[in-house]
Amino acid sequence: MTVIAAAPGPATVTYRLQPIDPGEADRLRASSPDAPRYTADVHPGYPCRQCLRDAAVGEEVVLVSHDPFTTDSPYRSASPIFLHRGGCEPPQDLTTLPAQLTGRQLSVRAFDTGAMMIDAAVIEGTSLAATLDRFFALAACDHVHVHNASRGCWATRVGRAR
Ligand SMILES: [Zn+2]
């Protein structure tokens, strides 16, 4: 009798990107008239945290401070982020990791429901999917915050896939 092993199905994505809320992004744009503005002169180089793509050369971004925490904790803090100055839309696909993340060195921080850090790693972006799978395999892991490792810009929150 021949036993045929089942072909592996598509990998189950354990996470879902949760970029900045569009309303909060618009509020930051409107409430920061004196925030530094830049016209992208290189690509990649100015990662917008609403649409999760780097500004194309010639596109204008604004640099603002954003607190992505929704719960008080000792780790709660605001971080710098770029946003397209004229507005943009969140990505349609929130389960595919964008080049903005996979192409950079990242600090990836896992939190429980009380916003206490339970694990963290500095990784190359090419390892982000594996790192998210590893963190969400922890029962206590409620969400993850991803930052650029070098300059500390907040990139995105990542939640557990429902
Ligand atoms: Zn954008």
Describe the structure.
- It is a single chain.
- With 162 residues, the chain is of the alpha+beta class.
- The protein is built from three helices and eight strands, in the order E-H-E-E-E-H-E-E-H-E-E.
- The chain has helices spanning 22-31, 99-102, 128-136; strands at 15-18, 37-39, 60-66, 79-84, 105-111, 117-124, 143-148, 154-160.
- The strands form two sheets. It has a five-stranded antiparallel sheet. A three-stranded antiparallel sheet has the order 2-3-4, with helices on one face.
- The structure holds zinc ion.
- Zinc ion binds at residues 48, 50-51, 84, 88.
- Pfam families: DUF1203.
- This is DUF1203 domain-containing protein.
- InterPro entries: DUF1203 (IPR009593).
Radius of gyration: 17 Å
Count of domains: 1
Oligomerization status of the protein chains: single chain
Any low-confidence stretches, pLDDT <50, length ≥5? none
- H/E element sequence: EHEEEHEEHEE
Mean pLDDT: 94
Using the alpha-carbon principal axes, give the shape: globular
The tally of beta strands, per DSSP, is: 8
Largest sheet: 5 strands, antiparallel
Helix content: 10-25%
Number of helices: 3
What ligands are attached or bound here?
zinc ion
**Strand order of the biggest β-sheet:** 1-8-7-5-6
Structural class: alpha+beta
Which strand-content bin applies to the residues? 25-35%
Distance between the termini: 40 Å
